[in-house]
Amino acid sequence: MPDLALRATEAARRLQMPTKELLRLVQTRQIRYVMIDGIAHVPADAVEEYRSRMTA
Q: Would you list the domain boundaries of the chain?
């Protein structure tokens, strides 16, 4: 299990976007995620990776 895998709601909050938008990013594989017990979680470092790509 990754060190810090965030549920969609928490990852969306950190990226200041609606959860629905984050789930769209997961579905289209625009943000890295891991499956834990059948639920997509976003590693904390993937949140930072996505944020840095969007600000570049």
A: 5-55
